[in-house]
Structure formats: C-alpha cells, structure tokens
Specification:
The protein is mainly α and 158 residues long. The protein is built from five helices and two strands; from the N terminus they run ααααββα.
Length: 158
Amino acid sequence: MKEHLLQFLSYNDWANKETLKAILQLPEPSDAIYLFSHLVYAQDKWYNRITPGKPDEQCPQFGPSFPLDTLEAEWKRSVGNWLQLVERSSEDELNKDLIFFRSTDKKKMAVPIKDLVFQLCCHSVHHRAQLNKMISAQGLKVPLTDYIYTKLREVEAE
C-alpha cells in the first residue's frame, strides 16, 4: 500500500504542476488561483491534524489566494510534506486511524491515514476537472493529466 500511495502522490504532484503551468498562462487567473490555493490549504489542514503544529481552527480549508508567483512553491512544500510523511511511515502506521474533531460540528472522527492520503489525491482530481473547465473557457488547451498517460508504454508488435 505504501508504494501505491507514494506513486499516486507523485502522479498527483506531476498532474497539479501541469495544471499550474496552464493557470500561469490564463488571461484571468484569479478564480483558478483561488481554487489551486484551496488544494494547498486542504492538504495543509489534514497534515496539521496528523502532525499538530497549531490549533485546527487556525488551518482553513479555504484561505486567501496565494500570490501567483508563490503558488508553485506552496504546492511543492505541501505535497512534499505528504510524500515525506508516507515515505517515513510504516504500513502499520499508514493503517492507523487519525482521530480528529470535525470542524463543522465538533464530533470526534476517525479515518485511516492511508485513506486520507488517497482522498487528498482524489480531491485534486476533482478540482483539476474544475480548473480544466476554467482553462478551456479562457481559450487555452487543457493539459493531459489522466493517470493512465503516466503508465502507457509502447510495446513491440508481434
């Protein structure tokens, strides 16, 4: 499972960086910057829940947009935290539950860390689709970021 999570996080990192390249070319990038910033904030909030650095309520899911010239560095920092966390975790640690209090109603919740990592990648896929719609609406070609494109390879014909 650990290798699979690292592979999916690496794919997600690549796909989001490809999407960010298109965002940087947008004539009106503010909505896309806000949504991409949300990906960073969401990852940071969950990471803070695993490695608490500050109270949960100080980690927003949606914060102010990062400046465009810092967006790539913020993404790199955030996804780097997750890659390092998974890399240094054992399979048993990845199977353990993260216990936290849901911010909407303060109920005590649990989720296996491995499922949380998977959710963060799926969350990016969801928002990349929204970002692609914004990119396309502004007349740019959307990047091909489907996972399968990272796995396809040519083979010799028989």
